[in-house]
Amino acid sequence: MAQLDDLDRAILRLLKEDARLTISEIAERLGRPESTIHFRIKKLQEKNVIERYTIVLGKDLRPKALGILYIQARTPVIEDFLQKYIAHIVKTLAMLPNVLMVARSGGDGIIALIGGDNWEKVQDFVKETVEVLPGLERVELFPVDSFEKGAGIVGFLVDV
Amino acid sequence: MAQLDDLDRAILRLLKEDARLTISEIAERLGRPESTIHFRIKKLQEKNVIERYTIVLGKDLRPKALGILYIQARTPVIEDFLQKYIAHIVKTLAMLPNVLMVARSGGDGIIALIGGDNWEKVQDFVKETVEVLPGLERVELFPVDSFEKGAGIVGFLVDV
Q1: Do B39 and B63 share a domain, yes or no?
Q2: By CB count within 10 A, which of A68, B34, B36, B75 is most buried?
Q3: A2 has pLDDT over 80
Q4: Mutating which of B68, B148, B154 best tests the A interface, going by the most A Cβ atoms within 10 A?
């Protein structure tokens, strides 16, 4: 377990905002020597506190409409079949570019973030790709409209 | 609207995986001159196709359990009150560190991503912080378990 102090956290906060900041810019902002900042960042990377560096894509490439999709499978007689069936749906959804995120949800469910050019397209996708699947107990789609926090996930997740 | 060609997309894919790649590393991988890569990245930044550079935090700092929370307010007689009430709940949730993401959902709903040390803590948070609020029609919490796609959102969203 990584033990972080205030300086570590301050560095991480700056890098989260802008990972292109140079060592000397961070040193200046935090009023610490460059050698200290260099050493700390090296440690944070080695300890996998910083797992990776990435980019967030801008509005043009992001879907205009989003929905959270919940799918629940009907519990069949054979439990083993249920698990294989859910794993199959999850893998299929993950291959589709408008499925930004997909995860298992409990023993019999799936949760996913779906994107589209507009809300009708998101709904159509669910109707045509998900609701047609046999053996589902429940399919529910919640719109994701204006973000108050975490808006960056769309530009972080979107495929190019 | 940004017009991207195959080279732009190849550059973006490499930077999404590792935004620390140097111009010369990208040039070598894609078999193009450094000057071309330099020019393309400059353009992608100027056009806000690359909105920003950031870091993804590793496992130690991430919540161990996650849930998607859906809240639906009861429609009151006065529509204006409903909007203000939802805006208030959204703003309050956004201030809490274990609320990783929160957005409006349709005219009377809220959708959020909640983190915690374990599933019981996520459930307790919803019971103690959300279910106690007056005037709610529906509160539902879906576990988010193993990711097939988009696992990085947790390390992207988590506060330090």
Answers
A1: no
A2: A68
A3: no
A4: B148
DSSP code for B52: E
Contact A51 B58 (CB under 8 A): yes
Is the Cβ–Cβ distance between B160 and A13 less than 8 Å? yes
Interval A108-132: pLDDT, tens = 999 999 999 999 999 999 999 999 9
Q: How do residues A75-84 score in pLDDT, each as one tens digit?
A: 776 778 889 9
Cβ-contact A75, A144 below 8 angstroms: no
What is the pLDDT at residue B133? 93
Report how many domains make up chain B. 2
DSSP state letter for A128 = I
What chain A residue is nearest to B143 in terms of C-alpha separation?
Answer: A105
pLDDT of A5 reads 95
Q: Are residues A69 and A31 in the same domain?
A: no
Distance from CA of A78 to the nearest CA of B (A): 22
Q: How far apart are CA B92 and CA B94, in angstroms?
A: 5
pLDDT attached to residue A48: 95
**Is the alpha carbon torsion for A20, A22, A27, A29 positive or negative?**
negative
The answer to whether residues A74 and A102 belong to one domain is: yes
Which pairing describes strands A147-149 and B50-57: parallel, antiparallel, or unpaired? unpaired
Give the range of the structural domain holding residue A107, as residue numbers without chain letter: 59-157
Whether residues B40 and B108 share a domain: the answer is: no
